[in-house]
Amino acid sequence: MATQRDVARAAGVSLAVVSAVVNGTSHTRMRESTRTRVLQAMQQLGYQPNQTARSLRLNQTDMIAMILNKIDNPVYGPLRHGVYEAAAEHGATVLLGDAETMRSGSQFLTRLLSQGTVDGILIRGEGLLDDDVMAELRSHPKPILILEHALDHPWIDVDDRRAGEIATRFLVNLSHRHIVFVGGSGYLSQQRYLGYQQAMDAAGLTPAPHLATGFGEQAGADGLRQAMQAATAPTAIVVNNIMSAVGVLAAARDLGIAIPDQLSVVGIHDVDLMQHLRPAVTAVRMPMYQLGRAGVEALYDLIAGRPSAGGVITDPEPELVIRDSATALTRIRD
């Protein structure tokens, strides 16, 4: 097995130069041609760095944790992709946990908080973690970054208010006037509802109360049934979460409501499934992949002792994906 000394001999450089290249340190100055020569020698000799020794020397494990609420939620596919890709660029692997199963004293939480297990923790779904779990996480000496708005931790998030505005403005431009906002709860849902209110106010329309029925398919179905009981039935719905839009479509069929001819539907978030439904669902695509990448970079800033450049991601902004579930209103129902 090749050693750093073998690489140094093959590249014609000192052992210190090889060590600097292997560890990515910047205090050893060298020409780019020298670095290239060392990397070529490593490849030719099949040299593999001793990651265990490197981790001990740098007090790093080259592993980060990511905790998500409902990790099987398809909305998180692009987020996980962004996290995995950015973590790999830092030479790290990702330990994945589900917020719904984390309890104080659980095996995963105990392992997560063990000395030297991870270099940092990413969390989305902080509101689903009970107070005891959050207290234990906050006691961890390694940094934590929240992948949503937070008051007492560094955080980074997508622009939920803008998403609500984009969805509602699209429906307003299709001549809809009776538009409701269905589903969700908590801060991010409030932000999306504020975006809905903003677009309604800008059009001189009266926003309907937020039907905060929760997340998921059943929440969407419940929200639609509540909306249709209003004195003036809506002609369009903004659904807080794209999976809740599936429930809206199912309930509409059960109630004999034709989409989009009698009711237009726009969901927030987008997943591949939405283009295969009938009708295919118009949605606001959130930059979740970019959130994953930006979250890892911000976490590594914290790991390095630098301030994190967190906040709301505005570039790229949420993007409207127009499909078949929304159409221009041809007859206003009063």
Automatic annotation (TrEMBL):
CDD domains: HTH_LacI, PBP1_LacI_sugar_binding-like. Coiled coil: none annotated. Pfam families: LacI (PF00356), Peripla_BP_3 (PF13377). SUPFAM superfamilies: lambda repressor-like DNA-binding domains, Periplasmic binding protein-like I. Residues 2-58 form the HTH lacI-type domain. Signal peptide: none annotated. Gene3D superfamilies: 3.40.50.2300, lambda repressor-like DNA-binding domains. Keywords: DNA-binding, Repressor, Transcription, Transcription regulation. The keyword Disulfide bond does not apply. InterPro entries: HTH_LacI, LacI/GalR-like_sensor, Lambda_DNA-bd_dom_sf, Peripla_BP_I. One of its GO terms (molecular function) is transcription cis-regulatory region binding. This is LacI family transcriptional regulator. It comes from Nonomuraea turkmeniaca. The lineage of its organism: Bacteria, Bacillati, Actinomycetota, Actinomycetes, Streptosporangiales.
